[in-house]
Amino acid sequence: MALSPTSALAAALCGLILIIRYIHSRLSWRARSKGRPLPPGPQPFPVVGNLLDIPKSMPWEAYRDLSVRYGDVLFFRVLGQSLMILGNAKVVFELLEKRSVNYSDRPQSPMFDLIGWDFDFGFMPYGQYWRRHRRLFWQHFHPGVISKYNAIQGDVSRAFLGKLLTCPERLEEHIRHTFAASILKVVYGIDIAERGDKLIEIIEVAMEGVAEGLTPGAFLVEYFPFLRHVPAWFPGAGFQTRLKKWRDASHAMVDLPFAQAKAHIKDGSPPPSVVNSILSDFTQSDDPLVSDEEQIAKNVAAIAYAGGADTTISTFQTFFLAMSLHLEVRAKAQAELHAVVGPNRLPDHSDRDDLPYIEAIIKECLRWQNATPMGIPHAVTEDDEYEGYFIPAGTVVFANVWAVLHDQEEYPEPERFLPERFIKDGKLNPDVRDPGTAAFGFGRRICPGRHFAEAALFVNIARVLHVFDIGPPLDERGEVINVEPKMKDGILSYPENCRCTIKPRSAQAECLIDNGERDES
């Protein structure tokens, strides 16, 4: 059927508009790029771009392999979104550290809101609201103040030793409880039940939402935000039920402990805590500014636990895995502890400078099996150039942290667990890059709670080694079970298996666990 003159004119105008928009887009791109090529990467397909090239599992290893072919800066286009993977320390520190002003933004995903994690300033866009959160967090967790939390960390670590003594088979449960108890006591002044604590159950569900919900490509709604409006009963919309479960848990994780801490303050007998310290500066008022500050305080308190606990937990699990596989490392650490601490007390934070091999073990745990192998994505604010390549504004940038920490030039034999790589002449070697410079993030987005996390790892690892022998797991016949040092897939990664045998080193060590008194203040 022939088109009417009006329809033909409309079709022609639409075609002309599309042509003009295409020409404008090409000219604009040419002006922005100044003829510079994009970084190398696999050839994209029409419409979907490199969607089929994005690894479905263990992306850190897949991207490392692609870097061998294309170079240490990989570029992808996925459904119109630019994506860049940085594959070695040189480019990571050049862009994310030296040019952090332009690389400190975060890509915004509908998933943050859908799983209830929009409170997390680690995911917030770079700007004034983010700065207010980070400034408040830093006030309570910078290196100059964390020593006031030593007593709490010490008490909780001693309780952890007792749990290992009585029920070593529940190792992973004890680890999670220990770090939850420590940070919840510090932040909210809350003591949690030994087992079945309701708040811990809520936190576990909320953290599940991060591990599963923020895994790239796990949910189509990440790429097609309109799907968020599809009701849960609609065929194929079962994801809505999971998202709601995570969202409800996340909101409860933020609200419940904060309300409990506020109730203690209202009763007039609040235990010392970060929340008590923050709220003591506020006045009761309907002023929107005060209300806004309280919301920031609530967010900061929640992220103090949620933002660092799983990284610390993963690293501690890696420690037990490593000790079960490398008995010579355990023996060397115990010799250092015997020489410095002696048999009559537990090590504490004050021994840290005198235990370089323990510090080296912690660094190697952070390097060997990193908890966030692809880090947290950054976003480019303005067009940039690197070694002649054009990097468009809005590009999402991932640092392949695992590849950085397994660089053979930086860390020879990277697959080996070798704390000695950080030691020279009996001291920590300053010439070897500290894995913490990559494991805790980069530039203005580096984790502000890293000093608290490292202090917690130190006191727990030193004490475990001082009183326990850790070995490989055994079957019913007493034969060694071979454990492969593999990590789980996901944005947060854990050892697949950290089973081991845990036995007190001696009767005297057992007495230290049973009868010791608090030795820090």
What does this structure look like?
With 521 residues, the protein is α+β, with helices and mostly antiparallel strands. Strand 7 (423-424) and strand 8 form a beta hairpin. The strands form 4 sheets. It has a 4-stranded mixed β-sheet. It has one domain: Cytochrome p450, CATH 1.10.630.10. The protein is built from 18 helices and 10 strands. The protein has helices at 5-33, 59-70, 89-98, 110-114, 128-141, 150-166, 171-188, 198-213, 239-267, 274-279, 288-306, 309-325, 327-340, 356-368, 401-405, 436-439, 450-467, 507-515, and strands spanning 73-78, 81-86, 378-379, 384-386, 389-391, 396-399, 423-424, 427-428, 468-471, 501-504.
SSE topology:
Blueprint (H helix, E strand, L loop, with lengths): L4 H29 L25 H12 L2 E6 L2 E6 L2 H10 L11 H5 L13 H14 L8 H17 L4 H18 L9 H16 L25 H29 L6 H6 L8 H19 L2 H17 L1 H14 L15 H13 L9 E2 L4 E3 L2 E3 L4 E4 L1 H5 L17 E2 L2 E2 L7 H4 L10 H18 E4 L29 E4 L2 H9 L6
Parallel strand pairs: 2-6
Antiparallel strand pairs: 1-2, 3-6, 4-5, 7-8, 9-10
Pfam family, one: p450
Protein name: CyP450 monooxygenase
Pathway: Secondary metabolite biosynthesis
Short overview:
The chain has 521 residues and is an alpha+beta fold. The protein has helices at 5-33, 59-70, 89-98, 110-114, 128-141, 150-166, 171-188, 198-213, 239-267, 274-279, 288-306, 309-325, 327-340, 356-368, 401-405, 436-439, 450-467, 507-515; strands at residues 73-78, 81-86, 378-379, 384-386, 389-391, 396-399, 423-424, 427-428, 468-471, 501-504.
